[in-house]
Amino acid sequence: MITRRTLMAFTASAAMFLSGHAMSQEKKELVIAYPSSMGLGYFALYNAIGEGYFEEENITIRPESLNGSAQVIQALLAGQAQLGHPGPGPLLNARGRGEDLVYIYNYFARSQFNLVTTEDSPFQTPADLKGKVIGVGTSDGAEVAFVRSIFDAAGMKEGSDYTFITVGEGGMAVAGFANKSIDAYAADTAGTATLRLRGVKLRNLTPPDFKAYFGNGYVTTRAFLDDNKDVLEGFGRALVRGVKFGIDPANREATLQHAQMGNPQQLEDKEFASALLDIYFDLTTPLDPTKGYGYQNPVAWQQWQSTLVAAGDLKQPLDNLEQAYTNEFIEKWNAPR
């Protein structure tokens, strides 16, 4: 016979079970700090949101746009975000100060800067530009340091072997090539898209080794990584699905629409947006596709560290560079579904 006391105990036990089950099913919110509001650049994230991939992983995403990688690092250390999207330089500097931050996903797997010239020019290598004029967007932009390092590797010095001239962003570079005031250009992502959209056919003179200077990627604290491996596994799995959805030509329009979540103004010029999207597809493609999306190349990390030390941006090599990144999730993120 079921007594009233037995029934009450059963009911209480069931309530506790259901309550615990509901708590285990609560969505995990991830606040992600980005250094800009570049919707198209983060197309994988917005595809994963728009197509419901994060929903399937029981994750809610809240992107926050900040002003540069330094602020992203600060947000992570202050606990205001669980993930961030800084560049490798700021991350290594933070680790040099004793902060235990970890790169978990190499998103922009290729350099975001390139040394380019016109396709009909006689220049085939950086060394061919000896005595020539190189256009740059701004005198102190990151692309200037990047291209200077290319010439340094070729044994060429600014002033004696080549000259930088500030011509402004993409559109001005078009005029620079047209009136022969520049022989090559230090192009960032938007600059390359503008040149191509204006009908300028380009030849990329960036040596292969420099293409491995990857850009921004996803970073978290060691503490969050250790305590939330299942969440990070789901996050990366959804992100990889977002990349693959985007590069499928059948999903191009949907990808452009999803990207408006991050920056609606960027999509006002559809032709330019489409040209820019192609470049981001290239930037997010692994240098070695067999390694999978998000893979961290130890050699590329060594290159970054050596370059930063040589430039004085990093005081000295880190004692534990291998602790700055991890590939532990790569296999699960890229596993066939």
Give the secondary structure arrangement, pairings included:
Elements: H1 4-24, E1 28-34, H2 43-50, H3 53-56, E2 59-65, H4 69-77, E3 83-84, H5 88-96, E4 101-105, E5 114-118, E6 132-136, H6 142-153, E7 162-166, H7 170-178, E8 184-187, H8 189-197, E9 202-204, H9 208-211, E10 218-221, H10 222-227, H11 229-247, H12 252-259, H13 270-283, H14 298-311, H15 330-333
CATH fold category name of the largest domain: D-Maltodextrin-Binding Protein, domain 2
Number of domains: 2
Question: Any guess at the CATH architecture of the largest domain?
Answer: 3-Layer(aba) Sandwich
What's the CATH C level of the largest domain?
Alpha Beta
User: How many helices does DSSP assign?
Assistant: 15
The structural class is alpha/beta
Give me the strand/helix succession: HEHHEHEHEEEHEHEHEHEHHHHHH
Give a count of the beta strands, DSSP E runs of length 2 or more.
10
Approximately how much helix is present in the residues? 40-55%
Give the rounded overall mean pLDDT.
Answer: 89
Task: Write a structural description.
The protein is an alpha/beta fold and 337 residues long. The chain has two domains: 27-110 and 214-333, D-Maltodextrin-Binding Protein, domain 2, CATH 3.40.190; 116-210, Periplasmic binding protein-like II (D-Maltodextrin-Binding Protein, domain 2). The chain is built from 15 helices and ten strands. The chain has helices at residues 4-24, 43-50, 53-56, 69-77, 88-96, 142-153, 170-178, 189-197, 208-211, 222-227, 229-247, 252-259, 270-283, 298-311, 330-333; strands at 28-34, 59-65, 83-84, 101-105, 114-118, 132-136, 162-166, 184-187, 202-204, 218-221. The strands form three sheets. The protein has a five-stranded mixed beta sheet with strand order 7-6-8-5-9, with helices on both faces. A three-stranded parallel beta sheet has the order 2-1-3, sandwiched between helices. Strand 6 (132-136), helix 6 (142-153) and strand 7 form a beta-alpha-beta unit. Helix 2 crosses helix 11.
